[in-house]
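hi!! sorry for the late reply, been swamped w classes. u asked for the two structures so here they r. pasted raw, havent cleaned anything up. first the sequence of the first protein and right below it the tokens
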Amino acid sequence: MCKWGETTLWGIVAAIIGLLFLAPFSKAQDGSGAEGLGAAGQGMGFKRFRQGSTGGMRNFAFLKPQGIEGKWSGRGKPLLKELVVEGVKRRYYLYKPDSATLPAALVLAFHGGGGTAEGTDKAAGGLAKLADEKGFVVAFPDAMDRHWNDGRPDLSKTNYDDVGFISKLIDDLQAERLIDPRRVYATGISNGGFFSQYLAIQLPQKIAAIATVAASVSKTFLDLKVTPVPIMMLLGTKDTLVPWDGGKVGGKVLIKKRGEVLPGRQSLQFWLDHNQNTAKPVETEIPDRDPGDGCRVSVEQYGAPGSNNEVVLYEIQGGGHTWPAGQQYLPKSIVGPVCRDFEGNTVIWNFFEKHALR
């Protein structure tokens, strides 16, 4: 391939990955929109939208909202809900399974940068199906401009109050007596994983535990006041975008600035230090249930299960920028493989259900 062709190819690859997980898809301006990417959009629900104003309130009206049922793992139907934060209309899907005894535990599931609420369930391998089995409520929030303001200044140019959005979402569901405010949890991949950590740092009185996928610790967190929170991190050692060895987010694939992260082991130590957790790890190896995925998984668990400073690391050796047992949304050569040796959703929920705010 000629040098020009190779440069063009990698430019296209970088653009697609940026859309999917680490960058805003498109900034809406006065009726302009962005067309969907079809199969490359991995079911994340790309669609046109417009920005307008009604009575002084900023109103983001989505055109032809894409149905969620075609990519939905739950037996019931999710409810699309809206609320207004600082004059901005925000939206999320709420799934309340028939098996839930109210008030129930709430799992907040955050899409990655470039994703949408509609595609989160499928991308994560079926959180709604697990909610049916375990009886918890799930909220799938939608970010503005398809990215969460997670504390990284390079991604905070739109300044939407995402923390305020989630805080109000929790308050509203509590007021409706749908959720137990002591059992609210946050999880997400990539930008959604960084935001889960940032949310717990900003709302320690509302988040009982967090679990992050393909998101280590942003260097911007080093300057924040961190309250101890139980955390589980699922990190792939061959993540092409959030490097296990630390450094620039995007690795060699993406050019646009997205901040820097600590190496995986230092990210673990960051949370051990802030959780004041000096326990010796309980180490286990997960059986290689799918030798074809190219992954092996080791688990380190620090502190008593259910303690308010518990820290757990799933080191997915050979794992990529993917959700364990989730969707292979792009080829392995680009984002790495999906680990099939364990169900990411199951271990996350098993971790969550041991924790509650005191």
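now the second protein. again sequence first, tokens right under
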Amino acid sequence: MNHPGKTFIYTIIILIAGTAQLWAQTTFVLKSAPADLNVYLNDVLIRPVSSAGGHRTYRIAGHGVLRFSADGYKSVVYNSSELPVRNGITGIKLENENPVAVLRSEYSTGIQPKSAYFSPDGQRLFVPLLGQHGIDVFRHVSGNLEYETRLTVPNSRSAGFVEALCDERRRELWVSNMEENKVHVYDLDTLEYKTSMNAGGVYPKVIAQSPDGKYTVVSNWISCTISVFDSDTKALLRRIPVSGTPRGMAFSPDGQTLYTAIYDAGLIDVIDMTQNRVTRSIRFHTRTGAARHVIYFNDKLYVSDMYQGTVNIINPITGALLRSRFIGLNINTIALSPDGNYIFASSRGRNHPEDYTRPGPDFGAVYMLDAEDLSLVEKIWGRNQPTGLAVSPNGRFLVFTDFLDANLELYHLPVPRNISSIPFQTPQVLPPDLTGFLN
């Protein structure tokens, strides 16, 4: 026999539990790629309660399953209580439904991973850290990365590691450090620290080596010079003044010419290495520009222009602009696949309106382009400021760094068309403001 008092108490408990469930709310701020993806709660489309600065705020009652979807992309699903949150923001990026480049995994790095370099055998990946002391080293094993160690400099705690060079002849890793104005050298096999040299200028950036390996050059950002080192002795031989702020560099196949991207202009300085001076400049457009990286391949120069958001193909002899394509905002690094068929370009996306070192209103991306005509093969979403970029020596893997997320992404690429052996088991928009003294 039911007691009427107990029935009343049970009813109150049920009402309280139901009301608590109704009152329970989950609020999350979403930053996504693509920015206009749809959000479903238990398969019912939900709308944001507000939207500003690239972020959408959602508020849901109770709990359930959230699905993030967009046409042409693979959906991702999370329990509403287990959303990926970083610095108060839920970051969701979707992968292409039928991708050319397939995401393998993502990995944490030190602060501000500025660049990425595979070892010549493809078995290691080096990631210099701009915001922390050292270079993160990952082992590349069976198509995955495993964190191995962090290289440091004895008696130093400086951050500011920028770019690297793998010298296969001498089995050395050279890394520039702009805070100390030095270049550090490590054993490529044992990873032991070997020596450091004064860079010969202020804020050293990119390192390149002549085809015969005799000379190694370093671009000095503030000094507007190129330092030339003897690769064997590490002696600083000379400094070559250039016409502006130098960044990326590439040698001609005979080693007699060094092409240098000038960041504060849309031009390439041409340095005659036999005369040790700039003999001419290639101005590949007349607008405001920020030439950043340069690659020499198959009698062509590939150049990224960060200000214009373009990748460009230039005739190195005549200086003629053969092709130019707007890719995205704040184009950073470019990398060529070993078979020469594809150019990859990282795009930071829009900057934060107050400070480029803070996450902007949208995620960046990496673009895979046909190297012949710069037609788009695939757009791969990244996270906050994709910056460093590298393709493995066998052409099967792509990595890029998300600079502001201390994150590294690894993708599997299709089989290269022209490599027979494996060495180891667009619309016009207004350009952004010229940004970032440390770019």
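hope this helps!! also noticed smth abt the second:
The longest strand covers residues 25-33.
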